[in-house]
């Protein structure tokens, strides 16, 4: 397997709204957490984190508000599999039935659900199932609005990072960081995301007036090496649209071809 886990130049999303999950490539746990900084308790189903606390009822370890900061900064890509579900408090863990624990084990092993993986006792909003974090992730969202919030945050942070928002003339004041792409701007892309969409930071164009980020419909992929090969073949063809940030108006819009 090629190491695409650290790829910063594209984001692939394939959304399955019926089953509440999204397959992604190019989005790491660090970036996911940046979008949801109030996330404090996560039940670690598969991991290599050394500071987890054991819940004696489920025998799973968990990270809480005291340790999650260390987890976020850890080299999660090196874990291999990294799977977790958020939860509200430890009392909820102690109420889980045997079949629910079995479902969580199945989730982390097969990276697929037996039934919708949202548990009243946990009050969880997410299930995060990744392989070589950033290379392949399957994330369940109780509310799909959260997916758009996360994606909008990641796109803005990525452009801030890759382009550096560098001044055009030496000595000029550094430009302000881009704001998150609003949910309402991304919603028109929902049908394209159901087909598989690749968003290219590599071919983003920055001028004094605006920033343009192209995207292509690319199809349904589970093998992200194959997705990269397809991306190489289509990246020279006309785009299916672009995300545009207008510097003067300080707002995002999506143009669909």
Describe the protein.
- By secondary structure, the protein is of the alpha+beta class.
- It has two domains: 28-133, no CATH class; 166-256, no CATH class.
- It is 28% helix and 26% strand.
- It has helices at residues 29-35, 68-73, 90-94, 98-110, 144-162, 183-186, 190-195, 224-234; strands spanning 10-16, 21-25, 42-46, 53-54, 61-63, 81-86, 126-131, 136-141, 197-200, 205-206, 210-217, 241-246, 251-256.
- Strands 1, 2, 3, 4, 5, 6, 7, 8, 9, 10, 11, 12 and 13 form a 13-stranded antiparallel beta sheet that branches.
- Strand 4 (53-54) and strand 5 (61-63) form a beta hairpin.
- Helix 1 (29-35) crosses helix 5.
- The longest helix has 19 residues, at 144-162.
- It is globular.
- 35% of the residues are buried.
Order of helices and strands: EEHEEEHEHHEEHHHEEEHEE
Number of domains: 2
User: Main beta sheet: strand number and arrangement?
Assistant: 13 strands, antiparallel
Overall body shape: globular
The oligomerization state is single chain
Helix fraction? 25-40%
- Could you list the spans in which at least 5 consecutive residues all have pLDDT below 50? 1-5, 165-172
- List how many beta strands DSSP finds: 13
Overall pLDDT confidence: 92
Report the C-alpha radius of gyration, rounded.
19 Å
């Amino acid at each position: 397997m090629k190491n695409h886990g650290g790829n910063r130049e594209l984001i692939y999303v394939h959304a399955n709204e019926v089953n509440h999950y999204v397959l992604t490539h190019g989005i790491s746990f660090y970036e996911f957490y940046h979008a949801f900084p109030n996330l404090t308790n996560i039940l670690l189903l598969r991991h290599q984190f050394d500071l987890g606390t054991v819940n004696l009822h489920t025998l799973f370890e968990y990270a809480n508000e005291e340790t999650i900061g260390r987890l976020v900064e850890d080299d999660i890509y090196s874990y291999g599999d990294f799977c977790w579900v958020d939860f509200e408090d430890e009392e909820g863990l102690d109420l889980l039935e045997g079949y629910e624990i079995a479902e969580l084990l199945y989730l982390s092993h097969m990276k697929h659900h037996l039934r919708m993986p949202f548990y009243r006792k946990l009050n969880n909003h997410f299930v995060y199932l990744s392989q070589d974090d950033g290379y392949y992730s399957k994330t369940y969202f109780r509310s799909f609005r959260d997916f758009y919030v996360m994606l909008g945050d990641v796109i803005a942070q990525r452009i801030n990072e890759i382009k550096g928002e560098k001044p055009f003339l030496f000595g000029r004041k550094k430009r302000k960081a881009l704001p998150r792409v609003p949910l309402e701007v991304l919603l028109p892309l929902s049908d394209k995301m159901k087909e598989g969409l690749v968003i290219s930071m590599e071919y983003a164009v920055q001028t004094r007036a605006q920033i343009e980020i192209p995207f292509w419909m690319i199809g349904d992929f589970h093998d992200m090496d194959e997705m990269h090969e397809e991306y190489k073949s289509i990246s020279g063809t006309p785009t299916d649209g672009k995300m545009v940030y207008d510097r003067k108006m300080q707002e995002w819009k999506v143009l669909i071809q």
